[in-house]
Amino acid sequence: ERRAFDVGVRSSTTPVAVSPDGTRVFVAGQAESVQVKFPDGWVQSRSKDEHPVAVWNLTTGQRVWAGVAEGAWSGAVGFTP
Known about the structure:
Largest sheet: 4 strands, antiparallel
Number of strands: 6
Structural class: mainly beta
């Protein structure tokens, strides 16, 4: 069965990790981009300082937990015992 897990932000690559028992998946999104306008008219795009993360139940497809993590992007993600 195929499922989509939405963390709230579209991204071409998303770090994921499957729990050791195969029942849950951890998904990390990329921070949203925001435009910063300066007084001289210059506009700069930069990422927000936190990005969405969530844990999903692979059996039911239901989100188990959601939150935010610091930084614009997650590196490697994983589960610990």
